[in-house]
Description:
The protein folds into 3 domains: 3-307, Nucleotidyltransferase, domain 5, CATH 3.30.420.380; 311-386; 390-476, Gyrase A, domain 2. A hairpin with a 4-residue loop joins strand 14 (405-412) and strand 15 (417-424). The two termini are 38 Å apart. The chain has a 5-stranded mixed beta sheet. It has a 5-stranded mixed beta sheet with strand order 11-10-9-12-13, sandwiched between helices. A 4-stranded antiparallel beta sheet has the order 14-15-17-16. The protein is globular, with a radius of gyration of 29 Å. It is an alpha+beta fold. It has 15 helices and 17 strands.
Amino acid sequence: MKFNSVFHIGEGTIKFLQASVGLKKALTGVEAIAIDNQDDAQISRTLIQFIKDKKINIAENRVTVLIPRSRAILRYMVFPSQNQDEIRSMVDLQIGSRIPYAREEVEVDFQILSKTADGYSKVAVVIIPQEIVMRYWKIFSDAKIPVHGITITSIGLWLLYQQQPGASEKPSAIIDLDSHHSEICLCQKSHWLNSREIPIGFTQISNEGNEEMIKQWELTQVSTIGEKISGAVEEVYLACSLDRVDELAAEMAKAQSELSIKKMIVTQSLSLPRGLQWPPSIAQDGASIASLAGIAFNAGVVPIDLIPRSVRQAQAKQAYQHQLIILGAWAAAALISLILASGMGFFKKNMQLARLQDELRTTQRESVAVEKQLKEMNEIESAINSRLIFSDLAAAIDRLLPAHAYLVSITVGEANSVSLEGMSFNPAEINEFQNGLVRSKNFSNVTLNYVNKRVTQQGEVNYFKITCTFKPVRGQQ
Length: 477
């Protein structure tokens, strides 16, 4: 990948930041796209047009999507292990009792905050309702934009702190000031600690002063120390797009004399390429790009990744199928080369009549080897033909899935059994989807397991589960 591209969909705006990730890191693109009163389908079309107008070669970009901190749930847990895989299993077992959702209704990732000498770990667990993550995934999927990571804005702020020269190893903070809200993020260089979003931005500060912002900062400190997440914060960065924080910095330093207050004017620290200007919502209204910059200029993988489990499983299965096909192709090429080589040798040896008897014995041995290779090749072909190719399954489902029904989980089991879980605002579309599966030659044993009504932010939704058996396309040939 030549570029890191970061998208953040907020209230009425899509923020976009792109940076090169070669030896010389540099800002290469920035935009704030208005999406007032657009539904998700319209947002996807807006993104398609944006990519087209800006002539962005999306294949050269590592794309990360930021979800606002307010959409996430944060929990702190202690586990008797320091192994990442063991901790992940423990999180999966315990998370359901800590949140108002079932485990299968959320996406989860975590970061280890500290380890003890007796083998315990304290972790920060980030939880996002699955319907929120799937909404973001579908918006970008419909826009034909491949997403490599989904995380929360707090991680971008922590990564931006890591990139500051002379950043302290002790607990520190970034206060990200946006036009209508702000985010307070506590972190250390080695890991992120805590964060919260508050409805106070440049607009309210300009109208009402800094008192409420300072109060919210003090409340954040109290809660963090009370939960024993960190010690006292000594260094605070005020991150923003406008140089209007001198008064706030002075009042914070006066209220807490031990604090070292530093300004981080992101638009001043980043140089725009020739011909590019800061969008008005950033340069004039103070819309923040701090969290986007932290991700865009980070060379590594985003530490908290909330891509839906169903998507990761589908991608892993598709990669496995691809490896099988490549293996079969290499085996076929090797077998053909062996047959040609043995055939030419046999022809030459038949020209030597005096050594016919010896060459016949040699040919017999080579024939046995060829037969063995053919048998192994047939076994490989049989294994490939009997396996479910996920792209075939996805294409078959896509042809049958009604326009306003969405799948949130595709699980493939033994003997090509498939479990489809999804949702629709219209129960008639669920019946239409089931009937389409029954009539299709690609599916058999179609069973509607359940249809449950649930109330979401978008209204009443019908969740459903259908199980069936998929007949691989290659198996039909």
